[in-house]
Amino acid sequence: MSNWKTHDFAVKMLAWSAPRGSTLGYRCRRCGRSFQQFSAVSRGIWAVDEAGRALESTVTDQWLSDKCPRLLSAKDEEDRKRLSKRASA
User: What is the pLDDT of residues 29-79, one digit of tens each?
Assistant: First the structure.
């Protein structure tokens, strides 16, 4: 997760529940990539679109493995349309 540190994140608490803790939202000020994470559950981090819907795990894996591209990207815009099946259900 060393590439995580290449982003310049604004972090925001989105929600809270007893079993999961806080839902934290991370949005990179440079590239616009967004992620979410539960503070109390070790589910990991997942990529989300602007509405907070989870993206396909392949998008999450790719974005987490990349260094911050430092600019908005047309490919990222296409990736944001690839919603996870659980997000669209």
Answer: 999 999 999 887 777 899 999 999 999 999 999 999 999 999 999 999 999
| Dihedral angle, C-alpha 34, 37, 43, 44, nearest 10 ° | 50
Provide the number of structural domains found in the chain.
1
Q: What's CA 8's distance to the chain center, in Å? A: 13
CB 36 within 8 A of CB 14: yes
Q: How many CB atoms lie within 10 A of CB 65?
A: 9
Going by C-beta distance under 8 Å and a sequence separation of 6 or more, which residues neighbour residue 85?
A: none
- Say if pTM beats, i.e. exceeds, 0.85: yes
Domain span at residue 69? Answer: 2-88
